[in-house]
Amino acid sequence: MTGGSLGLRTGSYGSLQQLQLIQNGFSHNLPTPGLTRKSSKLLLSSSREKDRVLPFVCRFLGRKRVTMLLLVVLALLVFVFNSFTVNKESSNVIITQHSESVIPYRKDRSSSSITFAGMEDKHDIKIPSTENTVTGNVKHRILIPSPSHPLIQPSTVVRDHCENFAFPPPPPPTDRKRYGPRPCPVCYLPVEQAIASMPSFSSESSVLRNLTYVYDENPIRIESHRGSEFGGFPTLKQRNDSYDIKESMMVHCGFVKGSKPGHQSGFDVDEADLMELEMFHDIIVASAVFGNYDIIQQPKNISEFSRKNVPFYMFIDEETEAYMTNSSVLGNSKRVGLWRIIVVRNVPYSDARRNGKIPKLLLHRLFPNVRYSLWIDGKLQLVVDPYQILERFLWRQNANFAISRHYKRYDVFEEAEANKAAGKYDNSTINEQIDFYIKEGLQPYSEAKFPITSDVPEGCVIIKEHIPITNLFTCNWFNEVDRFTSRDQLSFSTVRDKIMGKVNWSINMFLDCERRNFVIQAYHRELLEHMPPPRPPRAIIRLPLPLRQSTKSVKTPTGKKISLKRGRGDKKRHRKVGGSRDSKSF
Fold first, then answer.
1. Helix, strand or coil for residue 127?
2. Which positions, given as ranges, span the membrane (predicted)?
């Protein structure tokens, strides 16, 4: 290699060809290469500059303030970088918790199976999509916006924002002292689209077309079993006949006395309220507080359209009315927030919880001209618009009855033992009810019942379309509660399975964590009264800022000098007396 090749980067951007030309004697025709080796003087000067700068930098970095400043700047850079990365990754996922913000959804997606991993249910079961589980003839369900709707324009398009929606892993608990189930994300349609998705026609009832109810002014107890005059004391034969599904049926369904429910029937309301109950509504929301057991919770996130078109009814007894009147909660308007208060007189049961089962299970009798109802227990606060709930759990699933399954238990035998352990009801009565069901063929839950995913509901929320088959179900469910214990979780599966064995009908049992997404549970009044009051916030005592050190002395009325500078060293330093220099440091 000749000296002309010094400083060339061989093997980069054609320098190899230049090297070959130089070796062949054509170097005088080539341009001067751009990269040449630096002279020794330049290298020497640069090394000296490095020797001068490095000690200065080391001395500069050795200072504490500079080091701390650099560490703070580095930490800020790392924080900003991580925040940008997290925001970029989470910008594609929207999670609703208690529905403070909702995820739109569209109905027309293909049926698929979903595996809920990490949710509350302890049994690992693969749940198929329930869009087509409820069979039977269903009339045309309008899923496109209606031009006549006051809020929806004809050009509105329902977009599928939740086509790829999946449950994310549960977040870590924010409060480590709080244990138990949590809400999970739910995809809702926007309110306007949910309103437009409401079916134009009622679903056709499977087999049963005409359902009437027993009327008897003087019901007589014939058999030695529990029951009530309000329920009419149905015999075992009448009970069995109520599960023989026919096109026309007459069954016991409470209110056996009086000309109509609410009028001299044992669950009486005022005439003005009776007229209110007989009005036509597409959707109602109902709840009840009996025995002054709960504190009324006000709904949240309710659209203006629902506020004007969906009435909220709260049933209370005279004891609750007296308390609310004395506490100035209830006035002459009979309204508490969104709730229209309906006072019930002459309640049929001494047990307030059993009285609450009447509006819970027999809303179709109290509201004969209502299409859909949403029942929530008195301790719950609704935080999602009713149209969005109905669209998500009824209309989208092509169902006419929906209820959440229990977050932990799915077997009736386990539920009975849990009720006895918690003292929910008399143990002998619970045993009598379970033994009766065992003789009828009750078996522990197993995966052989699939696609039924649970035998135990969390019955504090019921979403229902008022058609004959669903009305029959709640009538028979109430008769079981009237005959046995008031724990409706124990009788739910028996009534459901008997009807499903006769007709092609089923219930949408959704996850309990989904229920917790649209209702928030509060404590009963009794528990709140026995809870210790919350601790007062800690008082923050701000000490005055220390005075600056000064060499001046402050004279007191006695003429003594007081030092403004405190410290252990001062005691030793100021022991000298006299005109020394140390005495002037006071």
1. strand
2. 66-84
